[in-house]
């Protein structure tokens, strides 16, 4: 059981049965050119070191030709920084790889990651592709330049139409207003006012009610406007046909039959909208892919066929 360190610094064990640990010298070999290099001993591996320390590396001996001290890596490629992933090099060892940036909306927040992680749908990757950030919820608001422009145009054209309606009401007893068919003119101007105001339903945060009113309101008032123009056109055609002998033309014009075109067309439109709302109505939807870093709140049309 006797062991000691001799003056040379070696550990001497008097027990001959004890298994002596093998000692290893650690060398660093570097090649500058072909058949030209250097071999330096930088440490030892031995069980004779005190305090059960078996590995010893001398930092002072590691002085590279590039004049800086650094432990050589065990791979033949530089480590891939966060935001990149390892791609094996074809025909080379597994420790050789290329560092490729992560694809869109994917991140890697550690060094030497083999695969990038995809961000959730409600998040997006930052420019360095190291972290996922929360997407901003957005919609067409009145405060936006586009929202303000659309609202301003809608109010301007509806006010202009309201002024024309006021002129017609002020001069309703004049021959020119009477000759223009007062009732059809009033219906046309009122429906045009609501047509110009209907874009206001598309601005602001969408809700279930506004999504339904967006399409149905414009569909009905636009149908009233176009059917009013159609009724006016038929009235003019009948007025010219009155000069031709025949009581039927006079009866159609005198009875105001063209005016029934408006409720008939509007009723057809109401039936179509009712079928649409009953089968597949519009609803509030989110679009997470159209704009980077944003979640767009939009109105989904429901049935595309019914919309067209």
UniProtKB/TrEMBL annotation:
Entries under Gene3D superfamilies matching the protein: GPCR, family 3, nine cysteines domain
The keyword Glycoprotein is annotated on this UniProt entry: yes
Listed InterPro entries: GPCR_3, GPCR_3_9-Cys_dom, GPCR_3_9-Cys_sf, GPCR_3_C, GPCR_3_Ca_sens_rcpt-rel, GPCR_3_vmron_rcpt_2, Growth_fac_rcpt_cys_sf, Peripla_BP_I
Cellular localisation: Cell membrane
Sequence intervals crossing the membrane: 146-171, 183-204, 216-240, 252-277
Keyword hit for Ribosomal protein: no
Membrane topology of the entry: Multi-pass membrane protein
Main localization, broad class: membrane
Cellular component per GO, a single term: plasma membrane
Keywords: Cell membrane, G-protein coupled receptor, Glycoprotein, Membrane, Receptor, Signal, Transducer, Transmembrane, Transmembrane helix
Pfam families for the chain: 7tm_3 (PF00003), NCD3G (PF07562)
Any GO molecular function: G protein-coupled receptor activity
Domain G-protein coupled receptors family 3 profile: 146-308
Name of the protein this chain belongs to: G-protein coupled receptors family 3 profile domain-containing protein
């Amino acid at each position: 059981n006797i062991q000691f360190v001799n003056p040379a610094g070696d550990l001497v064990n008097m027990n001959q049965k004890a298994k002596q640990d093998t000692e290893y010298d650690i060398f660093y070999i570097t090649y500058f050119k072909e058949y030209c290099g250097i071999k330096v001993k930088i440490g030892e591996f031995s069980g004779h070191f005190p305090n059960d320390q078996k590995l010893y590396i001398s930092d002072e001996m590691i002085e590279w030709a590039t004049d800086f001290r650094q432990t050589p890596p065990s791979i033949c490629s530089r480590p891939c920084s966060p935001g990149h992933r390892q791609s094996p090099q074809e025909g080379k060892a597994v420790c050789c790889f290329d560092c490729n940036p992560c694809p869109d909306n994917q991140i890697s927040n550690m060094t030497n990651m083999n695969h990038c992680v995809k961000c959730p749908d409600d998040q997006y990757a930052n420019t360095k592709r190291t972290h996922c950030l929360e997407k901003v919820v957005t919609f067409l608001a009145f405060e936006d330049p586009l929202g303000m422009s659309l609202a301003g145009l809608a109010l301007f054209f509806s006010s202009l139409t309201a002024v024309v309606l006021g002129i017609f009401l002020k001069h309703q007893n004049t021959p020119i207003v009477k000759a223009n068919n007062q009732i059809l003119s009033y219906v046309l101007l009122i429906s045009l006012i609501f047509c110009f105001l209907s874009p206001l339903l598309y601005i602001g945060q969408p809700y279930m009610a506004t999504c339904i009113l967006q399409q149905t309101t414009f569909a009905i008032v636009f149908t009233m406007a176009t059917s009013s123009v159609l009724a006016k056109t038929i009235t003019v055609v009948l007025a010219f046909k009155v000069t031709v002998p025949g009581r039927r033309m006079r009866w159609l014009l005198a009875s105001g039959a063209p005016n029934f075109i408006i409720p008939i067309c509007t009723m057809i439109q109401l039936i179509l909208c009712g079928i649409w709302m009953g089968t597949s109505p519009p609803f509030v939807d989110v679009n997470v892919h159209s704009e980077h870093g944003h979640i767009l709140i939009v109105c989904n049309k429901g049935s595309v066929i019914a919309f067209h």
